[in-house]
C-alpha cells in the first residue's frame, strides 16, 4: 500500500527571537497542552505546547497547520502532538497566521491562495524561526528540533528548513515552494507522505520535492498511499491515518534522539 522512493540530506541558515507575553492552561480537550501567547516582531502567535512525557532534556517538533488554519482540523493536529509527547518529544502546535491570513488562504480560488502564499511565506517562515528560537532557549531542550508540516504548512516547513537548527522534517501532501531559490535548496533528513489521488497537491509535487533534495545531496524518503487524497490522515478511523502517524512519530524518534 505504501511505496518508498529516494534518499536525501542537509545544509542551512537563519534565526530570530520571540518573547513570552503570557501563558494560560489549554482547554480540557488538550489536557497535556499549555497555551502560550508569543510576540513576534510583526504579530502575536498562539502556541499549544504538548510537553514530552520524559524527564530531563527533550527534543521538540514544531507542527505547522494547513491552509485553513488550526481550528478546522484541530483534532488531527492534536493527535500528532499527543503521539509525539507520549514518546518524550515536546510538540509545539503553532498558529502562524495573523488576523488577515485565514480569510485569504481559505479562498476557493487556488490562484488567490497561491499568490497570497508566495507573498507571505517569507513572513511566516520568519515567525517559525522565531518559535525555533523560543524552543531552543528552554532549559530542558536537548538540542534537536524537527518540523512537521501539513499541506500549506509542509510547503512552509520546506521554506524554513534551511535554518541550521532544524534536525529533521516530515511533510504531508506538500512540495517545494515556487518562491524558493534553486541554489538555496538544502534540507535536513526528510520523510514525505503523499496520497496518489491527491487533487489539491498532486503526487508529482511530493516526488519533485524528493528529487530536488536528492539532487542537492540530501536524504529523504517518500511514502505513497494508494487511492488516498488530500488530508487522508485526518480521518483517524482509516488505517492509512494510523500508518502515517506511526511513520512520522518513528521518524522523529530516530532522527531527534
Instruction: Give the uncertain stretches in residue-range form.
Output: 1-31
Radius of gyration: 17 Å
**Large-scale geometry:** globular
The CATH architecture comes to 3-Layer(aba) Sandwich
Structural class: alpha/beta
For this entry, what is the oligomeric state of its chains? single chain
**CATH classification, class level:** Alpha Beta
Strand content: 25-35%
Strand order, largest beta sheet? 1-10-9-8-7-5-6-4-3-2
- Which range best describes the helical content: under 10%, 10-25%, 25-40%, 40-55%, 55-70% or over 70%? 25-40%
3D architecture notes:
This protein has 257 residues and is α/β, with parallel strands linked by helices. It has a single domain (2-255), classed as Alpha/Beta hydrolase fold, catalytic domain (Rossmann fold), CATH 3.40.50. It has helices at 74-86, 101-105, 110-136, 152-160, 203-215, 239-255, and strands spanning 2-5, 19-25, 33-39, 44-50, 58-64, 90-95, 141-150, 168-172, 190-195, 220-225. Helix 5 links the parallel strand 9 and strand 10. Helix 1 packs across helix 6 and helix 3 crosses helix 4 (152-160). The longest helix has 27 residues, at 110-136. The two termini are 28 Å apart. Mean pLDDT is 86; it is low at 1-31.
SSE topology sketch:
Blueprint: E1 2-5, E2 19-25, E3 33-39, E4 44-50, E5 58-64, H1 74-86, E6 90-95, H2 101-105, H3 110-136, E7 141-150, H4 152-160, E8 168-172, E9 190-195, H5 203-215, E10 220-225, H6 239-255
Parallel strand pairs: 5-6, 5-7, 7-8, 8-9, 9-10
Antiparallel strand pairs: 1-10, 2-3, 3-4, 4-6
Amino acid at each position: 500500500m505504501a511505496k518508498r522512493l529516494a534518499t536525501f540530506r542537509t545544509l542551512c541558515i537563519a534565526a530570530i527571537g520571540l518573547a513570552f507575553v503570557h501563558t494560560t492552561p489549554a482547554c480540557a480537550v488538550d489536557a497535556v497542552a499549555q497555551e502560550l501567547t508569543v510576540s513576534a516582531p510583526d504579530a502575536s502567535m498562539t502556541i499549544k505546547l504538548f510537553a514530552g512525557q520524559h524527564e530531563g532534556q527533550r527534543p521538540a517538533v514544531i507542527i505547522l497547520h494547513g491552509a485553513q488554519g488550526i481550528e478546522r482540523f484541530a483534532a488531527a493536529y492534536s493527535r500528532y502532538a499527543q503521539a509525539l509527547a507520549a514518546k518524550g518529544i515536546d510538540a509545539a502546535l503553532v498558529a502562524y497566521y495573523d488576523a488577515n491570513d485565514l480569510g485569504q488562504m481559505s479562498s476557493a480560488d487556488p490562484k488567490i491562495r497561491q499568490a497570497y502564499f508566495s507573498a507571505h511565506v517569507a513572513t511566516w517562515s520568519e515567525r517559525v524561526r522565531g518559535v525555533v528560537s523560543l524552543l531552543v532557549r528552554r532549559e530542558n531542550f536537548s538540542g534537536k528540533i524537527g518540523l512537521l508540516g501539513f499541506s500549506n504548512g509542509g510547503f512552509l516547513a520546506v521554506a524554513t528548513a534551511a535554518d541550521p537548527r532544524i534536525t529533521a522534517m516530515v511533510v504531508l501532501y506538500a512540495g517545494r515552494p515556487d518562491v524558493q531559490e534553486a541554489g538555496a535548496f538544502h534540507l535536513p533528513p526528510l520523510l514525505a507522505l503523499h496520497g496518489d489521488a491527491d487533487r489539491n497537491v498532486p503526487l508529482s509535487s511530493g516526488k519533485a520535492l524528493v528529487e530536488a533534495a536528492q539532487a542537492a545531496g540530501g536524504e529523504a524518503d517518500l511514502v505513497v498511499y494508494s487511492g488516498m487524497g488530500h488530508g487522508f490522515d485526518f480521518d483517524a478511523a482509516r488505517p492509512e491515518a494510523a500508518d502515517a502517524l506511526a511513520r512520522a512519530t518513528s521518524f522523529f524518534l530516530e532522527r531527534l534522539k
